[in-house]
Amino acid sequence: MKSRMTDCYDYKLLDVPEEMGRWHIPDSEIEAELEALARDHSGEEETEGEVQKGDCVRCICVKASKENWEGRAVLLYPGRKLPGAEGAEEAVLGKKRGEEFDCSIKDISLTLRIEKSVRIHVMRIGDGLAEKLDIPGVRTVEDYYRFYHEQHDKERKEKACMGIARYWLEEMSKRSKFDINEAEKKEWCDIRARIMYDSMLAAGYDMKRTQEGETISEEEALRRASEGQEMYFIPYLMYSYFSEKDGFVLTEEMYLKELEKMADERGEKVENLMKQTDISMFRQVKYQEHTYHLLMADAEKYLEV
């Protein structure tokens, strides 16, 4: 390419904010996860035994001192001491399904028959919960903490490293010097715009219809799409700079081999895939991956121990 990064700002001169290096998972996060799991493993079941505090009891009104109450369903929650229902909550304790009992709710005297009693089982955080999770090697809460760290620590470190690498790249894009060939840049953006336009159209989305509801020409849609690609040109030059400096150069031959592999996996023709991409898009993806790999290796030095 004629366009290139001519003077790369030394990102190692930048002060990395301390918070960007934090990656350790706090105990509070794991505790919140355990609380959510405990809720998921809590449940309820209909019981035939005597009503206890904490149950939810559905009753049918058999007789009442007030009109229009007979036949109505009444829910009682013994132990909650809901205003006006305290006496009924006490009266239902020890009763079983099908039994009738007298009580009052506020100023209404009632005879209720128990239709159903549901007992709620609340799972508490403890080793019993850990066993119920059925995770290999996890039998205690301590085991779960270890398991959680094994599952997430690496990802969190990588995420922190990626954040630092992204910060360096953003700062380098502002502080480095570039030699931009405007004609080349326009062609680069136009190619991507055309590929995007055709791909979206094939997927059933017409870029000539804007989000505001207006209809524009294909030429205008392509122009707007091309302008939208300009923001990716400088990053592309940076990815190319770091990759090629490291000896990582992707050739036309490598590009074609990758297309052949993709075509074989998808059961498509190479010619069809070539309409959906070009070598610069292939390089952008691979060079970006390689650049982040390089910078993230340096970023590890800034992570909290």
Secondary structure topology:
Blueprint: E1 4-7, H1 27-40, E2 43-46, E3 56-64, E4 73-76, H2 86-92, E5 100-105, E6 108-121, H3 127-132, H4 141-175, E7 177-179, H5 182-202, H6 218-229, H7 233-245, H8 252-266, H9 270-274, H10 279-299
Antiparallel strand pairs: 1-7, 2-6, 3-4, 3-6, 5-6
Plain-language structure description:
The structure is a single chain. With 305 residues, this protein is of the alpha+beta class. 49% of the residues lie in helices and 14% in strands. The protein has ten helices and seven strands. Strands 2, 3, 4, 5 and 6 form a five-stranded antiparallel β-sheet that branches. A two-stranded antiparallel sheet has the order 1-7. A hairpin with a 2-residue loop joins strand 5 (100-105) and strand 6. The chain is elongated, with a radius of gyration of 33 Å.
